[in-house]
Design a protein that fits this description.
Layout (H helix, E strand, L loop, with lengths): L8 E12 L5 E17 L4 E4 L2 E4 L3 E6 L8 E4 L3 E10 L6 E11 H4 L3 H8 L4
Antiparallel strand pairs: 1-2, 1-6, 2-5, 3-4, 5-8, 6-7, 7-8
């Protein structure tokens, strides 16, 4: 039974790109959106303490077809949740699908305030 039958959720892979602006400075933006299907499942625990350091471990695991994904990328699901890629494994080295360990980062609505919220802040909360 092919694993792809279980790839029912849609995701976007975003890569941070740095460009030079017209005055010579640099700007970074999440671009290069690649849409794909896969399966996401939550894992237990999100942070552990190890040798007096805080070690960040994965909060979710993503199963997807073999794609161009690197640990600096981020994954956005169809609900707008954003996950940072922390590890990638070619499961069983078969080249059929990838297992990506993800760390939940934020929801895309948390990253950008709503226009009404910005207007309220400008008016002193009135």
């Amino acid at each position: 039974m092919p694993v792809e039958l279980y790839f029912e959720q849609t995701f976007k892979r975003e890569r941070l790109e740095t460009t030079v602006n017209e005055i010579g400075g640099t700007e970074s933006a999440w671009n290069d959106k690649l849409e794909f299907t896969g399966r996401l499942r939550p894992l237990t625990g999100d942070k552990q303490l190890s040798a007096d350091r805080q070690t960040i471990v994965a909060t979710h695991r993503l199963y997807c077809p073999v794609l161009d994904i690197i640990p600096k990328d981020r994954i956005v699901d169809s609900a707008g949740n954003i996950y940072r890629v922390v590890g990638i494994v070619d499961t069983m080295s078969a080249g059929e699908f990838l297992t990506c360990d993800l760390l939940y980062s934020e929801h895309d609505q948390d990253a950008e305030p709503e226009p009404e919220e910005e207007a309220d802040e400008e008016n002193g909360g009135i």
